[in-house]
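Friendly challenge for the regulars: who can give me the structure tokens for this chain first? No prize, just bragging rights.
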Amino acid sequence: MNTVLKTAHISFDGLDQEDVVDRIRADFPALSLTVNNHPLVYLDNAASSQKPIQVIERISRYYSTEHSNVHRGVHDLSQRATEYYESSRDIIRDFIGARSRTEIIFTKGTTDSINLVAQSFARPILNPGDEILVTHLEHHSNIVPWQLVCQQTGAELKVVAIHDDGSIDYDDFEQSLSERTRLIAIAHVSNSLGTIIPVKRIISDAHGLGIPVLVDGAQAVPHMQIDVSDLDVDFYCFSGHKMYGPTGIGILYGKEQFLEKMPPYQGGGDMIESVSFAGTTYNDLPHKFEAGTPNIAGAIGLGTAAEYMNQIGFEFISEYEAKLLERATDRLSQIEGLRFIGTAENKASVVSFLLRDSHPYDVATLLDKFGIAVRSGHHCTQPVMSRLGIPGTVRASFAFYNTMDEIDVLAESLQKSSRILFS
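First reply, four minutes later:
Bragging rights claimed.
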């Protein structure tokens, strides 16, 4: 396997957290940029994270000296490309604690993974009157695919309520379960509010009634160690670009017992065993769901990103990001007229807020003038915003390469923005 990182075996022993972060930041070229004559403060990680040089160079090396199509050639380059591609599958299997490599499907991303399950797993088993359960917190990508499959089958989409602080109304969840519930599709972490949803409890309760569960893990995988076997989740989806990897690549984890029974989502090369005009025999897992030439470079880059995160370690990531969230909550709470949106007790490193009666776009535009990248709007969660009676929020989302000084710059720039908007 040729995916060893430049930072492999790096030791943080003897370094305090600030020194560790400085060392990490040196791996990310984008973090040295200047925007509007200010050092870039990148706080839009929930939308997409920056990439370390190890991932960038690994993809470049593949395209420079290793490129060929996979699974189809006996020549050396094809054999090597296949080895690297499949090695990344093994890396991801271990990264999320799956039992078998056959349970790791490469997709275009979380959205593609959810659509695959909607059409290949849910659609064949749904009948009129059946129900799919989601929550009010979901990203559009975990709403629209289920609406489509409900239109196709006559099933119904049922929505679990949330409290004003952005946490799940668990009583409503339990009351929403019935003999008609065929699937629960739920985020692990809310992208717009940062709420960490108690998915392990939900999965346990659902399985007690024989209901399978899909978890949208796009916002969880960058921040916490995921063990799909411990969760006992049936399907788990995530994207590479939010976890320091490339765009256009993601993962569908599925229990083998379900994947074996599911028909292919797309037809074409590599998902077949044999083809004739009389009929087609499909390939074994996981290739049954990977039609056509895959995103080889993306898969290799994703494996490298997972290795990079493992080198840093989830103990450090979780502890440090919790401190970033604490610092941001403290500093921003001192700003007159700033109101947090989403104050659940258990949160990932996201702060969503409004500044007096200003529009989120205006605040984000002013912050950009100070070199600060945040997200504004509804964050592809319009039902959440409607439920809370607001047009959207300003969202600052943190990663392990952000610094306490950057939190202070955000707070100071918000004070300046407030004076500009309301003086």
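Residues 103 and 277 are 30 Å apart (CA to CA). The longest helix spans residues 76-96. Your move, everyone else.
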